[in-house]
Amino acid sequence: MTAAPDGDVHGPVDGARCTAHPCAVEERREIAGLRERKKRRTRLALIDAALDLFLEKGYDATTIDEIVAAVEVSQRTFFRYFATKEDVVTAFLGEYDKLMAEALAARPAHERPFTALLESLRVMLRTSAATGGGDSDRFRRIRQVLKSTPALEAAQTARYSAAEKTLAAEIARREGVDAADDLRPHFIVAFHTAAARVAFEDCARNDIWDPETVAARVEESLALAVATMREWV
């Protein structure tokens, strides 16, 4: 006769009931949360190691073997997170594109399109600030890699295009129009994205990476962009 495992003194029937107990459910949630945090730590470690190597040796000269060796994981682990070496750069930026889209979808239905986009951008900026500067430093290093690696320009352009299409589709849904036939969602997204990009580039040129300072400068620049459109168009 097989002894019941420790903590299962009531046998299999009560053990089955235990899985539905609130404590058991909470424990599974905690375990799932720990796994997700571990995955994120591994993902960020790979990104950080790759960026260090790209800036030290150059993007083209860096191999995936060198990246995984720096983190002490296998190639199999690398490919669990990234499809290619290029993805190490673009996937991190893509996480913020996704966050922006999710924030936009959650905005109140009555908000006007530009306001909804601005509020969604604020969510993105607060999320970056909450990392304590870690993500801001990654943005800084990614920008350096992109500037020194023409081979990544196509991937970056494709990322911008995909992100704008996603946002335009959401604006069209909110406004009850068809993005395939109505260009207005594309206009408002392109205007917002261009204004934000100019603001971020201005911060980068002036070597401003503190999250709160960046957020304040972006807010000022977007307000200026709106005022400029009213006065100059």
From TrEMBL:
Residue ranges occupied by any HTH tetR-type domain in the UniProt entry = 40-100
Q: Pfam families from the entry?
A: TetR_C_14 (PF17754), TetR_N (PF00440)
Q: Which UniProt keywords apply?
A: DNA-binding, Transcription, Transcription regulation
One annotated GO molecular function is: transcription cis-regulatory region binding
Which InterPro entries is this protein grouped with? DNA-bd_HTH_TetR-type_CS, Homeodomain-like_sf, HTH-type_TetR-like_transc_reg, HTH_TetR, MftR_C
UniProt DNA-binding region:
63-82
Coiled-coil region(s): none
* Protein name according to UniProt: TetR family transcriptional regulator
User: Lineage, please?
Assistant: Bacteria, Bacillati, Actinomycetota, Actinomycetes, Streptosporangiales
